[in-house]
Amino acid sequence: MPTSDEDVQSNGTSTIGTLRELLILVHSFDSKGNAKISAATEKQTEKKDDHSDYALVLRRFNKPTGELEKEQVDINSPYMLRFLSEIATFYPSVPTTFTQKLSIEAPYKFLYHHWNKISDCWTGADDETSMHLKSLITFWKASLDKKKAELKI
Questions:
Q1: Which of 68, 74, 138, 144 has its CA 20 to 30 A from that of 112?
Q2: CA 101, CA 108: separation in Å to the nearest integer?
Q3: Up-side HSE of residue 8: CA atoms within 13 Å toward CB?
Q4: 34-80 pLDDT, tens per residue?
Q5: Domain count for the chain
């Protein structure tokens, strides 16, 4: 669902969530205490306020001390949103029909709750949906590996 004219390509289709990539943004503070947002990789350093063209946007919010305060993933991909709407039957305080960006805070309980359905059903999805879901699965596995390393399991 386009939110502005910039979200629509010349052929009238939306660009929201079409880049099958994970963009990692770090929200932090400079030496003067001013808030800043930077991309975690050189490849993703474009200067713009809206990153909705990425299928997934991982946001890391740091305290002024540099410590991680919270982390969240924004799911913009209409393919992922449609798929999650089909498999998510219930989760407290989260709607089960997703038509716009879905933001989930770490530890990503919503994904964990529906993980068996996601992992069982994604290979049966159409090609484009499967490609988008592969990004979500890669993100999720990396998140779990990071958590396991922190817990030393």
A1: 68
A2: 15
A3: 9
A4: 999 888 776 655 556 678 999 999 999 999 999 999 999 999 999 99
A5: 1
* 81 token code pair: 């949103």
Please report whether residue 107 resides in a domain: yes
Closest listed residue to residue 55, CA positions, set 81, 83, 21: 21
Decide: pTM greater than 0.90: no
For residue 151, being part of any structural domain is answered with no
Contact residues for 98 (Cβ-Cβ < 8 A; gap 6+): 75, 81, 82, 84, 85, 88
| Domain assignment of residue 139, yes or no | yes
- 8 Å CB contact between 114 and 85: no
The DSSP result for the chain, as a single string, is: ---SGGGB-TTS-B-TT-EEEEEEEEEEE-TTS-EEEEESSGGG----S--TTEEEEEEEEEPTTS-EEEEEEEE--HHHHHHHHHH----TTS-S--SS-EEEETT-HHHHHTHHHHHHHGGGS-HHHHHHHHHHHHHHHHHHHHHHHHHT-
Q: Compute the residue count for the chain.
A: 153
Q: Which domain holds residue 124?
A: 5-145
